[in-house]
Amino acid sequence: ARALDKAHRNHIIHRDINPQNIFLTYEGQVKIIDFGIAKAASHNSTTHEGLIKGKLAYMSPEQATGKTIDHRSDIFSTGIIFYVLLAGRRMFEGETMEVYSQVREARYEPLNKLVPDLPAKLHKIVERALAKEPDQRYQTCGEMLADLEECIFEMSVRPNGRSFANFVKEFFK
User: Can you name the residues that pair with 12 across neighbouring β-strands?
Assistant: First the structure.
């Protein structure tokens, strides 16, 4: 969320946020990579209607239908990643056309039914990021990050770069 907020403040829309484009370093940093289909706002940042680029299972409904997109499409994709991490399963499942229909309609099993014991605030964060209509989503990744940080604080979790670096080093030993 922090990295996307920075990109969006520089008027860059990634347009392909998915797990393959998130890089974890041994120093405990999370980086977004592969801005190959990203566009800068000053250089025609919108995807023209009818043109679909990116990975279907991580697209926003407006991107999947070929509509004009903005930075809020990246917010939806980030919500999908949070969903997958928290649920331990894909948000959209099935054959390609079935997934396409689910993505277009933002139709998925609610996270609170799959993992009911998560804090209600976390459910609300994911739900808001995954709102079908862009106007109902977080309007910036900074807003989403603030809610995530508040949720982490309320859960009395104290993540830091060093503990995350140790986890990454141990996991990829």
Answer: 40
